[in-house]
Amino acid sequence: MKTRIMFAILLLSLLGCSDFISPVKSTPGPESEYAFNYWLLNNIYLYEDELPNLQEDGDSIQLLYNTLKDPYTTYTPPSQSEDKITHLNTSMIAGDVGIRYFNYPNLEHPIIIDRVYPQSPAGKAGVPRFGSIISVNDIELTGDKAKVTYDSILNYSKTIRLLVAYKGETKLYELQKETIFAPTIFVDTLFEDSSKGYPGIIFITIEGFKPKTVDQDSGSYGELKTYLKSTISDKRVRVLDLRGNLGGHVKQSTLMADLFVSTGILSTTLSRSLNPDGESIHTSSTTKAKAGDPGETGNFIILANQATASAAEIFIAAVTELTDIPLIGSRTFGKGIGQTTFFTYAGGVATITNYQFLTPKGNSYHKVGIPPKYECDNTIGEVCAAKIANKLYGVKSSYQDDSVLAKQYRKNTDETKNFEGGAIEWTNIDTYLKVFNDLHR
To answer: CB-based contacts of 242: which residues, under 8 Å, 6+ apart?
Structure first.
């Protein structure tokens, strides 16, 4: 067993980074992959009291992981690992035109364009947001089958011809599908009416925390920072909308929180990992804010709901505890643990819970969530934000209860238990490489 453990350490040192690296042995047997994952779990899995339940010698890696109670500790086989890594690290969409839509069954033509990604085929062609798609590839979209028809043609056709009606005009757009990177930050201005002196309220929707998005260098952080820098003179109230945000990379979330915080500890991480001598240890680390970022001035509100989780909660805790920016909406999901992601011997992906997160004030929100300062009850989030903006900043707006403003976010928290990449980190290869070298002196 000792030989297998030493070999596993070597493999982890070679494969434990966020780039795909070919394993030393190209066709490993199932025993080697099982032994590697067994060793990995025993050395870093957070809930150590469960480890005696693991079977040391087995042939089912999925059974090994299913023995553990934590639903976020998972194994992805090699055949699915590339798709998972793409999903966790990027907003890349293979074969798309860059359109999101709403489906309104009560309309004659139910497919209404909700978002158009600027750097996508649809964005470059000038497809209008809020346009109604009359037909796709010469097939009219009407009735209950409109959504299924549109999705099917989009999935199986390379050329997409959209007939779109917008403001009384109809235009045909011919688009070629591409691999695109979707934005994770979207900006909308609501409740604006210059005739009544209503300046409007800006809603900044933060959909995730990914290191590679439409901003392929800085990811979600780069998108948000660019927007804030370009609008630093805008004095209107801005709502940071994190409803339905299930998280992502921890570093991205703390970098984005730092945009609004000038000083203090953004987050404390308690972790179980390996030290340079190959010993399993518990450590504590902090991430501190730096001053001089564009979000440190201005009037902001954070909007969240029960499907706001994990890295999104790290962001919320940092900003609300270190600034006077209030949280409104409903209590967040309450996932105050995180995972490290490892490449395995055979090219699979091990995602293992080995982190706990504390707020700047040292509080844990795991399984309890973060309560809002202002509860929205059953009020539409946008309307609630407008009312709070009026209460705190005197912003005038016609915030009537307009159902058109309502967005359909996941409210069933049971769905959130199965999401991937809520608060993830990639392992540092240097630590494990030193472990291997020390064992072979």
So the answer is: 206, 302, 303, 304, 308, 312, 315, 316
